[in-house]
Amino acid sequence: MNSTETPVDAAIAELRLGAPSRWLWGTTIVGILAFIGTQIYGFTTPSSEEMGNLVKIMFVHVPTAEISFLGVLLMFIASVLYLVRRQERHDLLGAAGAEVGAVLTALTLVQGSIWGRPTWGVWWTWDARLTSEAVMLVILVGYLALRAFTEDSGRRARWSAAVAILGALNAVIVYWSVQWWRTLHQPHSSPMTVARPYRYALRLNDVSMLLIFIALVAWRYRAAKLERAAELLREEAALKQGGSYAL
Q1: d(CA 139, CA 101)
Q2: Which CATH class is domain 21-230?
């Protein structure tokens, strides 16, 4: 927004946005096709001697968990930038990262439960990794709920930024939990520690999940800008209507 442009002028400009760009559509389509192709490849890999075909959930579970951290990281960085620069676009970008991160964190917990039932014999246990991951989901949902129920945009951005910093601190606990405490969850591993077919499936899933993450964040950021523009116009209309009554 330039020096002569009012927030309402910027809102009108946002609402006049054209169709999504080619790169956004391209990233979305390539990400979906890559994900589908990767799952097909994963099904062709040999079964594990210890876990049979159950091991193949790893191809989706591990990349989902890894990419969910990007959502939290994006939320944190964008929130810090907002606190420093007070630019609304950073607040909206952080919210987009939080929404996608919340979805991926929930999927991580569901996938882990599906894997844990035949492996550990239970759907859920208060393991350090699982518990800290569940706390992460609560923080992300709380972040989004705070934004939904706070009407003042400046206060909403400041308060949610504080929650974002708390979420980033918890992400550190999630990552190191398997090292700090004795848990059922296996320690850190990498694609280099598994057999070659599994390694390729993991790396391909990492790439496809990253593309999908970028596309989802971009779509959600675009939607957030439009929602904020509509909110500004509603506020302007309410002020004008109140002014007419005062006259």
Answers
A1: 11
A2: mainly alpha
